[in-house]
Amino acid sequence: MGLPFVALSGASSIMYKNMGISDTQIAFWTSLIMLPWTIKPLWGPFLEMYKTKKFFVYTTQIFTGMLFGLLALTLQLNHFFAFSIAILTIIAFSGSTHDTAADGVYLNELTPKLQARFVGWQGAFYNIAKVFSGGVLVYLAGQLEKSIGIQNAWMVVMFIYGIIMVILGLYNMRVLPSGGEAQKANSVKEGFDTLKDVIVTFFQKKNIWFSLCFIVFYRFAEGQAIKITPLFFKAARQQGGLGLSTSEIGLLYGVFGAIAFVIGSIVAGYYVSNKGLTRRTLLILCTFFNLPFAAYAFLAIAQPTNLYVIASAVAIEYFGYGYGFVGLILFMMQNIAPGKYKMAHYAFGSGLMNLGFMIPSMISGMLSDYLGYKEFFIWVLIATIPAFAVTWLVPLRKPEEVTAEAHTDEMNLTKE
Q: How far is the C-alpha of 203 from the C-alpha of 185, rounded, in Å?
């Protein structure tokens, strides 16, 4: 899940920045191409009807790998920006389809208790991919830029993305559990009838509108900060940035961010598994998720030159990000997904979650260009207020409901 998503939302931003594309264009287009992760519920139900969820996982991984190889070749063309954005859009459709199927495997193979126990590890591995993509590969690109040029450096990096995805696809073809057999559809009409039923039953869920507000606004500040941060790191100091090299940015994400994020994700997973998803734990997770954005406001105001000071700020933010993101994932698993169509309903929830990320990201470039980096990151702190409001107000399922569902799922798994 992590590699394609971060390649589109993060690494591509640095690539385009180095190739001379403006912040406004970068923020808008690299956010717009994330739309498939929002609208994936439109085709998610059809994945319930054909073959197994495992089949869609490994086929989309292999297909995505081939697309990254094609993307690498477009970087040598005169109109590389238009061609590469088009291919990244196709990758987004493939990647979002993969995520729906992979979530289906997770939800169908594990009970709610095990989902809570391993959600931290799921988040950790997702963010290992994030840090590998935005850290290790960006660092490699920065080193290669010095010897073979920007276009060639990023062409090599995109080929690496492709090779990794193909290898993952071949691996999962052999080892991944099925995630449940398809509910066979005998006709296209029956398929659309199922889609209609998925949509109707989704919006019939108890307190669904409160839940949707929660998953949209929880990431409102993050959607703005995450898109602009690497551009802020790269921008010259006279422009309000930190003037870091591509390799230094990769080092920050690949070492300091990686360690902090993985620790935060794993610790939060065990914390929620022991405490349960209560109002108190959700507020704590929300606080960890949003308040560390103050670290970027500090960097924008102080503009420190010491790389260790900058790295400490990144580590603080990434630990909080990893810790707090677990709350959002587990909320969707236990308050959105349960019911007849677990995979499809989880896809609805995660799609709307990405809408809460995508829309703020699209406007973040215009805001940062208008306000300047210092005022922009102060605004990000103000933009955390909606997250706290929805976390305080959203109704949660009663613990006995989750326990009863866990017992039912365990019985079903035992029968299987």
A: 23
Which pTM was predicted?
Answer: 0.68
Structural domain spans, the chain: 2-415
Residue 187 phi, psi dihedral angles, 5° rounding = -155, 165
Name which of 3, 22, 239 is nearest 138 in CA terms.
3
Q: Determine the Cα–Cα distance for residues 176 and 169; give it in Å rounded to an integer.
A: 10
- Which tens digit of pLDDT belongs to each residue from 53-69? 888 899 999 999 999 99
Q: For residue 93, what pLDDT is reported?
A: 92
Q: List Cβ neighbours of 192 (8 Å cut-off, separation of 6 or more).
A: none
- 92-96, 264-268, 312-316 — which is least confidently predicted? 264-268
Residues 103-131 as b or e (16 or more Cβ within 10 Å = b): bbbbbbbbbbbbbbbbbbebbbbbbbbbb
Q: Decide: 84 and 154 in contact? Cβ < 8 Å.
A: no
The Cα 32–Cα 322 span in angstroms is 24
Give the pair of three-digit tokens for residue 211: 């839940």
DSSP string across 331-373: HIIIIIS-STTHHHHHHHHHHHHHHHHHHHHHHHHHHHHHH-H
What percentage of residues in the chain have a pLDDT greater than 90? 23
Tally of CB atoms within 10 A around 226 = 24
Pairwise CA distance, residues 46 & 43, whole Å: 6
Structurally, at CATH architecture level, domain 2-415 sits in Up-down Bundle (1.20)
Q: Is the pLDDT of residue 394 over 90?
A: no
Q: With 70 as the cut, is the pLDDT of residue 413 above it?
A: no
289-348 pLDDT per residue, tens: 988 899 999 999 999 989 899 999 999 988 998 888 888 888 888 788 777 777 778 877
CB atoms within 10 A of CB 389: 13
pLDDT at 120: 65
Q: What angle do CA 199, 63, 21 make, to 5 degrees?
A: 90
